[in-house]
Structure formats: structure tokens, C-alpha cells
Design brief:
Length: 576
């Protein structure tokens, strides 16, 4: 018999996989779960170890450089030695390092290694270790869940209410049906405006799966840019349901959806639905909070429970959740739920999408010599991580010591705003207050000479005006420039402008019109040294050393810290 010794949540995954291998493949495998590590009870361990075990693999979720082995491995080998169990071959491995998932196919790899004539005595699993070459090869995904289990994934925007709505849905289903439920919520490092992924499971039998959904029956994408930015369909099950909240028409999908996504939808025989939940939310008075609208779509399309019963329960939960905020808020959410199903559009997935050619990789970030390390980091590490492919990076990609260069936020370009400000330079008084209050340094004033103006893009040139204020400013032209992909749509600049010179427009239109202008503006020389920085206007011509942070839209703290960097940047130390 071959057995794994493990403790913690990894023991659950190991035992579920071992049961599957015994039933489905007839293998003689087992798992010994350690519930109390130290003080280590050698006698109880040896009593629990079946006499038929000939090979043991001890798994530790830690790494102890310089030691003979990891803690659990050392205790087990010492116990076997003192008991003179020299007939047992004992090997050790590490799993789950760096917050890596530990999944059933990893457990299968461990057992396969253990069954080799000469197993790898020290190994890691779940990591692409191309430095010390200790990794075990990992096979295809293995589904060990009880039959009848439904798995769901929801890609949401931080603060859009998706996570809260899914928590309510899990409670509704678990408390009002005979189904078992499980939920886990994954967040990125941003605050509001970041990516959230909800992993939900429902089934007739208890669910023991302490790992993320990797074979989704129902996939919901609550922000259209995610469909273009991330490989969202890689975890969609064959025949699964995919719902996208977007403004696109059916005729636009060929151009809007990435080739990989179209290919996945066709090859997996997926059912595709579109809904403009944001439009419904605005109509119902909910603004960007589309959580209840998308929740009713989930109940309609997932088939987890009868739709009519689910909607009644959902409306009841709305009254309970929002009752303290008044009848108006409750009614707005109920109106959104009532309008949601009429907005669902079913799309027939063309068979030709299966042959969609995968496009070329995006161009690499370019940077001046002084920023070369930042650009290299952005290309090799930051971009894969931002695209949710960070777990696929090999060990050799990272710099020893884990150093991260400065100035990398400029390459992120999150594009999370729904609306972005556009400046009417004929109204602008050149006070620079919009730049001062911008939490993410996405609105900035630029000065340029006559020669630089002549080399500018036509739209940039048309939106520039002679600088006012006297002195050195008389030598330059002036323009307020917005970075549409870095803006978070907080509207603070619109509200503070004394001349009403900023108006909001859709982020899509602004990105097309202003991205090239922003790129040109960044090539202009920094003229901060020529201007007195002790005034509001003068301070904003200084380069900010805090830009495009992960703060919430409208943050009240980052403008102060950004201003500090503009006033004292070369002599400023910020400690956490």
C-alpha cells in the first residue's frame, strides 16, 4: 500500500482524491491525517500506520532551507527509525508554496511518483521549478466531486456588489433547498475597482473541495473588459453556460471577443448569453451596482433551483438587506430584478469560431534606459500576473531576493472607469486644481514649446492653448491631459473645476481619442524646475512620484501623499 502523510486543508484534498482512485482505478492508496503536530506522539502515529504500508510520502506546506528536511517529514522518518520500520520507503515533498493551489491532479502526481521504481525522494508539486528541477509533472484536471455538483464562477469588479450578492445566494440556496453549498471569494491586491472571482459549488452531497473552481458549469463575466483582458473561458466546462455583461451587439462579437475565447466557446459547446446589466441598473436607479440584476440572471440560467422560487427568495433577501436604507432603495433593487430577464440575449455560437486564429502576443513595453528594469519586470512578471497567469511563471523568472523595481504601475493600464473626463480647453482657467485633487495622477498639466507643439498629434495641438500666468509660462503652450486607461472615473476633477471645463464621456470613446495624446504628453520634458512649486498651480507641474496607485476611486489620502512627492520628492521617505 502507498500512503500520504499530511496535515491541514491539504489532507482533505488528498483523502477525496484517494477515495476516487480506490473506487475508479482500484489503486491501493491511503492518507494518514495528522491533527496534532507537536508535541509529536510517536506511538499514536505508529499505531495509526497500517502494517501493509510499504511506501510513505510526507507532504509539508513549508520550506526550510538548510535543514535535512521539512518538519513533518523529519518527525515521520524519526518515528520509523525508532520503530525499526526499515521496510517502509519514506520520501518527502513540498506543496502549496507561494499560496499555490493544491488540487486533485497534484495528489495524483504525488501518488504516481511514489509508485515509481525509484521515486524522486525530494520534490515540489504545483510549482514550475526550472532552477532546482524538483517539480513533479502534473497531469490533466481531475474532477473528484460527487456527481450532481454544480460549479460556478463569477468575475466581478470590486465594489459592484457581486461578492455580497453571491454570499446571499449561497445562504438562500443552502437554507431553502436540500442542496449543500460551498463558497470562496478571491480578490486581487486592489481595493474597490479590482477583480473579484467568486467560486460557488452546489450539490446533493457534502462538498469537500478546499480549492478553486476549475471546471465551471456556469461562468458570469460582470465587466466586458474582462472578456478581452483575461482568459476567462479556460475553466469553463464542456456544455457550460457563459454570461457576459456588456454593451455589445451580436454582430460585434466577432471583433470584440478574443480569438481564444471564441475558440473555447465553440470547442466546448458552450451556451452564450449577453445582458447589458449596467443599462438596466441605470434605468432602475442603481447606477453601477448590478449585483441583484446579475443574481437573477444566475438563477434563470444556472438551473440550480426553480427560478420562480429563487426570485421570491431573492426579493425577500433584498427587503432584509436594504430595508434600513428605505423603501426607495428596496424598490429600485426589486425593479432591477424584474427587468433583468427581459434583457437576456441568447447567442448562437458559430461553429467557425472553433477555428479562430489566435492573435499575436501584445507588443512588449518599451522604456528609456533608466526605466529598463521596470519595463523588463512589467513584460516578464507584471503583465502575466495582471492577466491572471502568474501561477504559470517558472521560478527562473523571478529575481533572487524578490526585489521589485519602482515605476511599474504606469504599465498596468487597468481601464476600470465607466466614464472618463474630457477637458474643454476654451473654458479652462489653467488653475491645475483638477490635477491636484486627482487621486491617481491620471489628470495632469503639460507645458510645451512651439517646436514641440508642431510635432504633437493634431488633436493634441488643437486642444492646447497659450499658457497664462506670466513669467516663464509666457514661453509655453498649455494643455490638461487625461490618461483614460489610468482614470478610475471618480469625478472629483469634474466637481472641483471652477470653470465647469471638464465633462464626462464614455471610457471607450475617451480611450480612442486620448490614449495617443497621453502617450505623446509623456515624451515632453519635465519643466517643473522652471516653476515655483509652492503654489497650487506650480506644484502640479512637478513630476508626481506616486502615480496610478491601487487606491479606491475618489481616495482622499493619495492626493495628499502625491502632493508630498511633488513638493519634497527627492528628500521624502515614506514608511509603513
Amino acid at each position: 500500500t502507498h500512503a500520504i502523510v499530511v496535515m491541514g486543508s491539504g489532507a482533505v484534498t488528498c483523502s477525496e482524491t484517494a477515495e476516487y482512485l480506490i473506487k475508479e482505478r482500484g489503486l491501493k492508496v491511503g492518507v494518514l491525517k495528522v491533527r496534532l503536530f507537536r508535541p509529536w506522539d510517536r506511538q499514536r502515529f505508529l499505531a495509526a500506520l497500517p502494517p501493509t504500508v510499504t511506501r510513505l510520502c510526507v507532504l509539508d506546506r513549508t520550506k526550510e532551507p538548510g535543514s535535512a528536511g521539512e518538519p513533518l517529514f523529519i518527525e515521520v522518518t524519526a518515528s520509523l527509525h525508532f520503530a525499526a520500520r526499515h521496510d517502509v520507503v519514506c520520501i518527502g515533498g513540498r506543496y502549496g508554496l507561494g499560496s499555490k493551489e493544491f488540487t486533485p491532479n497534484h495528489v495524483v502526481s504525488v501518488f504516481e511518483n511514489l509508485m515509481q521504481e525509484t521515486p524522486k525522494a525530494r520534490f515540489t508539486v504545483g510549482i514550475n521549478d526550472d532552477v532546482t528541477h524538483l517539480s513533479l509533472p502534473v497531469g490533466e484536471w481531475l474532477d473528484v466531486l460527487p456527481k450532481g455538483t454544480t460549479e460556478c464562477m463569477f468575475y466581478g469588479l470590486g465594489s459592484d456588489g457581486t461578492v455580497g450578492a453571491n454570499k446571499s445566494a449561497v445562504k438562500l440556496i443552502a437554507m431553502n433547498t436540500d442542496l449543500y453549498a460551498q463558497a470562496y471569494f478571491e480578490y486581487d491586491a486592489k481595493k474597490s475597482g479590482g477583480v473579484t472571482i467568486s467560486h460557488l459549488r452546489f450539490g446533493p452531497k457534502p462538498i469537500h473541495a478546499p480549492y478553486n473552481v476549475r471546471s465551471a458549469d456556469y461562468l458570469a463575466i460582470h465587466k466586458e473588459s474582462y472578456a478581452q483582458q483575461y482568459d476567462v473561458t479556460r475553466y469553463l466546462k464542456k456544455g457550460g453556460v457563459c454570461v457576459i455583461n456588456c454593451t455589445w451587439q451580436e454582430s460585434e462579437l466577432e471583433a470584440k471577443l478574443p480569438a481564444k475565447m471564441r475558440s473555447d466557446l465553440a470547442k466546448k459547446g458552450a451556451k452564450l448569453y449577453l445582458i447589458d446589466a449596467t443599462k438596466i441598473g441605470v434605468k432602475a436607479g442603481l447606477g453601477k451596482r448590478i449585483n441583484m440584476i446579475m443574481q437573477s440572471v444566475f438563477f434563470k440560467l444556472s438551473g440550480v433551483m426553480p427560478f420562480e422560487a429563487a426570485i421570491e427568495l431573492l426579493k425577500g433577501s433584498i427587503k432584509k438587506m436594504y430595508g434600513k436604507k428605505g423603501d426607495k432603495v428596496v424598490q429600485m433593487n426589486i425593479d432591477g430584478v424584474n427587468m433583468s430577464c427581459d434583457g437576456i440575449v441568447e447567442i448562437k455560437v458559430p461553429a467557425s469560431w472553433a477555428e479562430a486564429p489566435v492573435g499575436a502576443p501584445p507588443p512588449k513595453f518599451e522604456a528609456p534606459a533608466w526605466l529598463s528594469k521596470a519595463a523588463s519586470f512589467a513584460n516578464n512578471i507584471q503583465r502575466p500576473c495582471n492577466n491572471m497567469d502568474g501561477n504559470s511563471l517558472p521560478v527562473s523568472t523571478f529575481e533572487p531576493g524578490g526585489r521589485v523595481p519602482l515605476g511599474t504601475s504606469q504599465y498596468e493600464k487597468r481601464g476600470i472607469a465607466i466614464n472618463v473626463p474630457r477637458v474643454d480647453m476654451d473654458k479652462c482657467t489653467q488653475c491645475n486644481k483638477c490635477s491636484l485633487i486627482c487621486p491617481h495622477a491620471a489628470v495632469r498639466p503639460f507645458l510645451l514649446s512651439q517646436k514641440e507643439l508642431a510635432a504633437a498629434p493634431e488633436d493634441f495641438r488643437a486642444g492646447s492653448r497659450a499658457a497664462i500666468g506670466g513669467g516663464v509660462l509666457d514661453n509655453y503652450h498649455y494643455r490638461i491631459q487625461v490618461s483614460p486607461l489610468d482614470c478610475t472615473g471618480c469625478e472629483l476633477c469634474v466637481r472641483i473645476c471652477p470653470a465647469d471645463a471638464l465633462k464626462l464621456e464614455s471610457a471607450g470613446a475617451a480611450t480612442k481619442a486620448e490614449s495617443a495624446n497621453w502617450d505623446f504628453a509623456l515624451t515632453l520634458p519635465d519643466r517643473g524646475d522652471e516653476i515655483d512649486k509652492t503654489t497650487i498651480k506650480g506644484s502640479q507641474f512637478q513630476k508626481p512620484y506616486l502615480e496610478f496607485s491601487g487606491a479606491c476611486e475618489g481616495c482622499g489620502e493619495t492626493p495628499h501623499v502625491k502632493l508630498l512627492t511633488q513638493l519634497f520628492g527627492e528628500r521624502l521617505v515614506i514608511a509603513n
